Amino acid sequence: MSAQDIADKAGLSVTLVRRLLRVPEQGQAANIARTTADAVLGIPAPARREPNAPGLTSSAEASRLLADLARAGWPAPALAQRLGVNPATVAEVREKRPRLRLDLALRIRRLHRELIGLNPVSQGIRPADAARTRAAAARRAAGP
User: Fold this and answer.
1) Residues 65 and 112 sit within 8 Å (Cβ to Cβ)
2) Could you tell me the pTM of the whole model?
3) Is there a domain that residue 46 lies in?
4) Fewer Cβ close by (within 10 Å): the C or N end of the chain?
């Protein structure tokens, strides 16, 4: 859960929650009011693999997985259709969007496991589209 999610569910300000999440300096104890502690501790944590889990997470792994699928020849529109998102979202995540929703990150991980061993052409992707996607992925990997 992000600090904003915790603040929304606990009815606290996000600034206060961020202060609570900071690690106190060595030898110092954090002073937390009982009502604040009760508000935060009363929030049920989302299940670890819940597909609709709230919050944001780093996009580093998802970006790597989408780039891996692009190198295999899977075009963004095909991946977007399977993920239930816009192709522009797939491109943004692949190009290092800083954060993304946790449920999308989990769906990308699952999709990668499904598709990485498959040939895109055998799954209905046109050979020219797969080749174009591979070439673009190679150019992105080579850098400017």
Assistant:
1) yes
2) 0.62
3) no
4) C
